[in-house]
Structure formats: C-alpha cells, structure tokens
Design a protein that fits this description.
Elements (H helix, E strand, L loop, with lengths): L5 H9 L7 H8 L20 E7 L4 E7 L7 E2 L5 E8 L2 E8 L5 E9 L4 E4 L5 E5 L6 E8 L5 E4 L7 E4 L5
Antiparallel strand pairs: 1-2, 2-9, 3-10, 4-7, 4-9, 5-6, 5-8, 10-11
The structure holds fe (ii) ion.
Length: 170
C-alpha cells in the first residue's frame, strides 16, 4: 500500500479494523506524502504550537501539528489512547519519560523524528513531550486511537505534581 495524499489516508483510517491498533500503524507506515499534501492545513500561528484536527471519528483522530522554531509541548500522558507521531517536515525531538513514583517524570530516551519516521506512545510505554529544537519550522502528523479525551501534564523541573487539563495536548 502506498498512501500519497490526505484523502487516501483518511479513507484507509475510516475503513480500518479498530480491534487491533497495529492495523493503524500499518496505515501510517504506508504514508508516502510530504508536507505539500497538507499544505492547505499548514499554519504556524499559535502557542505553544499549532494544532489542526484533520479528521475525528469515534475510533480515531488525525491531527496536524505545526511547530515553529523552539516550540514544544508540555510533558503529557495519553489517557489510555495509542498515539503515533509521523514526521512530515523538519525535525521533532521526542523526549520520553517514566514516572518513578507515579508523579515525577524521569527522562529515559530522546529520539529525533524526521520526515517518514514514526514514534509510538501510550501510557504503558511512558509519557513524553515533543520539541522543535531547530531554528526552522516543523510539522508532524499525529494519529490517536481512540481520540484523545484529554491529557495529564507534568512539570519537567521534577516538581512532583500532575495537573489535569481538559484541552488536548497531544
Ligand atoms: Fe503526545
């Protein structure tokens, strides 16, 4: 399978069997387009980054995130959802943490997600933040199964608290 435009991707996601989340990974692996396929949705005009929902159903949400130079998310969990991050433009660093005592994030890995690369996250794998550490614009495609209902965010200064927020952090 070769998915070279956004409409094809959404069709495949709509038809995906949700009983096995690996089916969604296979679809994300088949994405072959670059940022020009979502050029009508690219925008870098919000802080801490720009979030653009491309499609949301009962089973999944597909989101385009645009990261201006230096922008980053807070550390956050995914409240039971699986998430895949696929690089689309520029470079995003995924910093992954575990919670030592349930509240204090401990950095365990940093991965640079370049165009075509996919990172997988869920609450069993850890929590994470995403950062554009470069001086160029970046964009990434995010798939959530099920759609994120919200996230818990964590301080990265080792302050042991977690604040529940209702808006979506990715
Ligand atoms: Fe995330």
């Amino acid at each position: 399978m070769n998915i070279n435009n956004l409409e094809h991707l959404i069709t495949e996601l709509d038809n995906c069997d949700p009983s096995n989340v690996d089916n969604y990974l296979e679809i994300m692996k088949a994405v072959s387009f670059d940022e020009t396929a979502v050029k009508d949705h690219l925008a870098w005009n919000q802080t801490p980054y720009t979030r653009n929902s491309l499609k949301k159903t009962d089973n999944y949400e597909l989101v385009l995130l645009c990261w201006d130079a230096g922008q980053e998310s807070p550390i956050h969990n995914h409240t039971g959802s699986d998430g895949w991050v696929r690089g689309l433009l520029g470079e995003i660093v995924e910093s992954r943490y575990t919670l030592n005592d349930g509240t204090e994030p401990k950095l365990i890995a940093e991965t640079t997600v370049k165009p075509g690369m996919i990172a997988h996250i869920n609450d069993q794998l850890g929590i994470h933040k995403l950062s554009n550490k470069t001086d160029k614009k970046a964009a990434s495609l995010h798939l959530y199964v099920s759609p994120l209902a919200g996230c818990e965010t964590y301080n990265d200064d080792e302050t042991p608290n977690a604040d529940y927020i209702n808006n979506i952090t990715n």
